[in-house]
Amino acid sequence: MRQEQINRDARRQARQQALPPLSLASATVSYNTQGHLLIAGAEDQIRLAAAQLKGMASITLYVTQAVQNSDEVQLQNALAAVPDMPLFRMPLHSVKGFMGQFEVQVAINGQYASLSQLAQHRTRFDLILDLSERPLFHSELAPAGYFHCHGDPDQLAQLLQQLPDYIGQFEKPRYFRINNDICAHSGRGQTGCTRCLDVCPADAISSIRQLINIDPHLCHGAGGCSTACPTGAISYALPQPSRIIDQIRDLLQAYYDADGSDAVIVLHDREAGRQLLESQFEQLPGNLLPVELEELAAAGQEIWLAALAMGASQVLLLDTPQQPASMRALLQREICITRAMLEGLNLAGIRLSLIDSTDLSLWQPPESAARFHSLALNPAAAKRDTLLSALDQLAAQTATQTKQSRDVLALPAGAPFGQVSIDRSRCTLCVSCVAVCPTQALTDGGETPALFFTERNCVQCGLCDAACPEDAIELQARLRLDPLRDQPLQLHQEPAFECLSCSKPFAPRSTVEKMLDKLAGHPMFQGEALNRLKMCEDCRVQDIYQDLTAHPEKQLEI
Questions:
Q1: Fold of the domain spanning 174-236
Q2: What predicted TM-score, i.e. pTM, was given to this entire model?
Q3: What phi and psi, each to the nearest 5 degrees, are found at residue 429?
Q4: Contact yes or no for 173/237 (Cβ under 8 A)
Q5: Which helix (H) or strand (E) segment is 267 a member of?
Q6: Which helix H or strand E contains 198, and what residues bound it?
Q7: Does domain 28-170 have CATH number 3.40.50.670?
Q8: 28-170 and 174-236, same CATH topology
Q9: Beta partners for residue 496, in sequence order
Q10: For burial by CB atoms within 10 Å, which of 47, 326, 423, 544 has the most?
Q11: Which CATH number is 418-493 given?
């Protein structure tokens, strides 16, 4: 009990000293609305809802399903409501957009038309109130300005009261930064990593001309894309990961300076998670140190591992019912990969967990777990560098304590760490893989026909495998901890073919031999012309020019 009181006092001091990072003025996204509203749903419901609204610039009614209440009196009241308001019944083709910019396309006589043009001679609707049983938008997080309500009269009454407040200009933060130069999504027509596309709960991410694009108006800042991104091409900006790491370091340092023991970092979001913690905080053990995030999924593996390396005995992620299912699945997958790393480092016990409100209320401190000395991380480093630095520190300290070390850790399939294996009997060193590798994990040998691989850089995006014309590449998820991880290792090398004319090495021998085999029957490479395939690019051009000069009639064949 005495240590518990010490922990509570240490936590109080730490929270007073280690203040949350300041949210510096960030870029913002603007919405402008004038109050042009579309109400969709059953005719009786949308008429009655429209009759209760005041202050909107315009209201358009769109029937999406049959009448819900066929009571004669109720039906008469509904039909008598807003008799002059525009009402439309036609098949829906598509709906997209956000507050102030909703586009609704309907089908008319086999063609598509803008419903806002038909109803109001405008290009867009500003707001949508959807009373349909099946929502018009199917994403987990609907766009700003879209409100779905079905079968809940209290919620509808609240929405009808709030809708006029959504007229004017509004701003929200631009949650993310994106650097397409280090993105592993695509290369030379091939598709590689799609992790961010797969997890966005708001459908805000798309691939446009092989580049990842995030629509800031659709983005809710859920954070999954930055956590899923293996290269750090997408980074969270509110606050930046480096500021979160700084806060955790300061919190742990102050806690241990005040004689606290076995610190447990609890990551939570700033709304539902904060409310949950505040309601139970005084009953929770004194070694739980809360760290607030904009969204729970905004912190990923590099922050979890950095917290452990800087002295936390555990890291807990506080889940809430408000968490989108896609974000929960992402966190569970990332936790599975991270636990595999920790288990491979001989770290006993569960160091990382996703817990809910029930787990929190029943949570008890685990048996004292070994913690590590504060880690001199460079929080401004790239995401991958931070993660590997934390792992190296954990590996070094566990090896010292257990007298055991591991050079390679096995990881679950799909982990963004691993090696590339080459089938040398198939590889022709065409270096197509090098041309598409977004992280320079694969490099060529310059003038020497060779292929090198640096495992530190590989994110297992699969672009090299997709680009290989010989199907000679195989990917394997794993994590290497020894110094060889950072060095270019030779995967394949072979002698260069020397030019038949000038003796200059110009291509891998297997590549030239393969061309000779495949083009031997081609009419352009008959007789002496076949030797051109054995020449470098300069000598080949000279040979063609000399042949055309000696035989002008061949110019007609070109």
A1: Alpha-Beta Plaits (3.30.70)
A2: 0.89
A3: 55, 40
A4: yes
A5: strand 264-269
A6: helix 195-199
A7: no
A8: no
A9: 508
A10: 47
A11: 3.30.70.20
